[in-house]
Design brief:
Length: 357
């Protein structure tokens, strides 16, 4: 009896999964009842997953089911094939999913023809349940509503979209004070996106900094770096050369980047040269020298006569957020001090240097 019940449940779930998703079910689940008219825009076909009232008539791939008369579907396909102009479909949106209010057959035909997107009138329903994902989504929705931006910005931490909105508002005040008197918030947002946000993202991407932050996005790093670099009075503990790369003032950064092509964006990685002096155990000096020289970061090793046994020159690479001392200390601890026979080390970081070729 139990196995029969399990089989029925399995078949029922399979039947349900074969249908387009139901808008009302997702709306109830997300508590998404407040809505915003988003106007007309292009929507990716693969994000249209269900229907408001006719989800029983289409499967999960939006193919017409056998019980539905095909006449309307055939006429829509014929009109599309002949290139006739059809009105935008009407869609409801919850987060990244779209549900068809009007135009189910047009969606089915467009999917059958392999189209990648479609013009649609969008009404977005905002989820109210207080999951972390939904809180971030509501902040993002507010940011997009205020700025009018439609460019994808993917942030995974609460509170960052409100900060970006403050940054855009500050940029609007700057533009209104000189360059573009009377600039609106939406005009400032578009300018901010192209002249500040994208250049910074380009620098972060070029430096491959994201590799060090699994689970984060380029947008997360933009928010973090710009906050710590441009927020007035904010103390920082990372790389000492950052001001040459990214000026402390956001508008100075904008002016600097306006003079560059994307290919000319500065690297976020910086080389560090340091020297390590060390004392080693008697009769173990040559073995230590060989092990040190085998390290890729070690460029020179010198055996010294006097109070110091060995002098080592190293060249390391640090990213934007790391300090020289932090990177050097980690290298010495993980690589140098692990070599047997070393009694003590002292690290010397050059200040001003002059080098002859």
């Amino acid at each position: 009896m139990s196995s029969l019940a399990d089989l029925i449940k399995k078949l029922w779930r399979g039947n349900r999964n074969s249908e387009a998703k139901c808008f009302r079910e997702n709306q109830e689940c997300e508590g998404a009842f407040d809505h915003i008219d988003r106007g007309v825009c292009t929507v990716p076909m693969d994000q249209i997953v269900g229907s408001v009232g006719r989800y029983h008539d289409f499967d999960s791939q939006f193919k017409l089911k056998g019980h539905v008369p095909p006449d309307r579907f055939i006429s829509v396909k014929k009109a599309m094939r002949e290139g006739k102009s059809l009105p935008p479909v009407k869609l409801y949106k919850i987060k990244d999913e779209y549900y068809v209010l009007d135009g189910n057959h047009r969606i089915a035909a467009a999917k059958e023809f392999g189209r990648s997107d479609i013009m649609a009138k969008i009404v977005e329903f905002i989820p109210s349940s207080n999951t972390l994902e939904n809180i971030i989504y509501r902040e993002k929705s507010e940011f997009m509503e205020q700025t009018g931006l439609t460019h994808p910005i993917d942030i995974t931490e609460v509170g960052q979209f409100p900060y970006l909105l403050e940054q855009v508002e500050d940029h609007r005040a700057f533009l209104a004070g000189g360059e573009k008197p009377g600039a609106t918030l939406k005009q400032a947002a578009e300018d901010w996106y192209h002249t500040i946000y994208l250049p910074m993202i380009g620098i972060i991407g070029k430096g491959k900094l994201l590799d060090s932050f699994p689970g984060r996005t380029l947008d997360d790093l933009y928010a973090y770096i710009s906050f710590h670099q441009w927020e007035k009075g904010r103390a920082r503990h990372y790389g000492i050369g950052i001001d040459k790369l990214i000026p402390r003032d956001v508008e100075a950064f904008r002016e600097k980047m306006a003079k560059m092509n994307k290919e000319e964006y500065p690297e976020m990685l910086r080389s560090i040269t340091a020297f390590i002096t060390m004392n080693v155990e008697a009769k173990g000096e040559l073995k230590v020298v060989e092990k040190l020289f085998a390290l890729p970061e070690v460029k020179e090793v010198h055996s010294i006569h006097g109070s110091i046994d060995i002098l080592v020159k190293i060249v390391l690479t640090r990213d934007l957020l790391s300090s020289d001392a932090e990177v050097i200390g980690q290298f010495v601890h993980e690589h140098v001090r692990q070599i047997g026979g070393i009694i003590s080390t002292q690290t010397l970081i050059p200040g001003t240097s002059k080098i002859k070729n």
